[in-house]
## 1
Amino acid sequence: MSLARIGVWTAVAAGPVALLVAVGAPAPSITAPPARTTVAAASPVADPAGVAELFCDLWLRADADADAESATVRAVRSLAPDVALPEGLRREGEVLRTTAVRSAQLKRGTWSVVVAAQFPAAPAEAEKTGAGRTVRYFAVPVASSDAGNAGGFTVTGAPAEVAGPGPAEGGASRFTTVLPGDGALAASLGEFFNAYLVGVGEVGRYLAPGTQVESVRGAGYASVAVEEVLAESDEAEGAVPADGTRIRVRVSVRATDATGGRWPLEYELSVTSRSGRWEVSGLRSGADAPVASGPVGGAAK
């Protein structure tokens, strides 16, 4: 029953005057709720690098002359039903490992993936160059088997051997000042790395308040020596400057393990002066050290 009819019957019950008022009143308007708009989520685009890497590894191990029904050949056929296989491969030259190094989507549903393959070097080459392994690169053509590129890839042809990627040109380093090896900063960093890498003392006492750095555990280093400290300014060349001075440095260290192995390692850090000494306030190798809301327990006061 509509609202207008309810009002009329109510007016009848109330009397003639109320009936006239009810009949003359406009019917209430009811506004329909706005239509809901559904936005379709974009289909994810999967990267075929893993498929290409697996295919290239299997293809380099498959030998059409050896056994056309081997498990390796069947695995290759499952990824690329019509691809041609190598023949007469030397088992001593079998691939050691493969790694996808670059993926490029040529057009929708079509990809080219460059895969690096590592092989043992030929004995004569190994004696001549001293190299134990060689690396070759193969471009693998891959097509997506569905319209959304969300998975389901098929290798569409045999790999093409290509030249490896060239070296990238790095920009000029901002670390241009060589700091003295017997200076205050080098000495502080030597103590920090002995705690961080070797476990000599607590690493927290070499950190600025609010900085958190977990020491490395299980590496087996017996000692560590700072070999070079490069800074982006000359503020740390002499005595420790005023409190709050913060600079960034790149530190080369050589860690020696329990068997005498020497490991050249390189770190980028931020250091801050406080109370006549340098403290580590950021470890930027891999990721910045997190800064806590308050001083870290064990940090030097």
Note: Helices lie at 3-14, 16-24, 49-61, 71-79, 123-129, 184-198.
## 2
Amino acid sequence: MKNRTVIYCNLKELLLNKDISIRQLSQEINEPFESIRRLHNNDTTRYSKQILEKICDYLDVQIEDILKIEKINQE
């Protein structure tokens, strides 16, 4: 059995807890809706430092609140 490390974005939960929509966040931080939607749905393959910084500032969170690392077992 081998472990694999997976990085995932926790933005969906953060926005839900703060009652903020994807569209509202994209407008507030002046970033394209599609970029925020991909983060929200955990569909992104590259993380923009600029967008992550803006999200951290706007939501008043740390990077580790947004990006999570998880080890999963592979059989």
Note: The CA atoms of residues 5 and 71 lie 4 Å apart.
## 3
Amino acid sequence: MRQRIAAHPVPQGPVTRALDIRADREPAHLSGPDSIAFSIETSEGSVRLAELDGRYVSTEVAGGFTGRVLGMYVTEGSVAFDWFDYESAT
């Protein structure tokens, strides 16, 4: 299944995209296992494209889903990935 959540035009040339995964460690505030936010960097700053409740890509809701895989790919045209960086918040 594929679903487009958001779209934003970007100029030709390099584009920086970000995926932020945040978990609230306080059980009283926990509405799901985490929050997943997608954004891009533009000349005006960061543009948040979408933020999703992590429950919808977890075993509790997705029925048998056992994990997440993070990767980069393109569905149209061509692309060259210069770098990938993973930073832990802690």
Note: The mean pLDDT is 76.
## 4
Amino acid sequence: MNQNSIRHHQESVTVKASAEALYDLVSDITRTGEWSPVCTSCWWDDEDSAGQPGAWFTGRNELPHRSWETRSQVVAAERGREFAWVVGGRFVRWGFALTPADDGTILSESWEFLPEGIAMFEEKFGDGADTQIADRTRQALDGIPKTLAAIKRIAESVAGGDARVAKG
């Protein structure tokens, strides 16, 4: 499939940890730098609303050729089930879904380039939009399995799968 046509992607991994422990891990956006290949750090814009639907956070992203910050809004926060956010409040949706399984939890990470994100790239980059969109798509497709593998490693490194105490 041509990566230019991909606008949504999801991958899953089974983790030997409870859905609640995994949720506590992935919803702690201050730990994102521990597993993301691009986002090196995140912080809540308002600690009072941290982790709740509607809360905003800022993320610092770094690649060899550039670095940038984004603001994202939490759009789903249901402990043990789903944690998701939208970059810029309307451009790209990222999320984690958690499904209990016999041997732990199926952790799924999803990414969707939303129509307003495509339109923003077209406005911002003009004739170069397709190249920029393809680049961001490649980063997402390459990053998701790396992120899932890192989260699995962190969660399973803790006795009993209680990822909350694994902060490192």
Note: Confidence is low (pLDDT under 50) at residues 163-168.
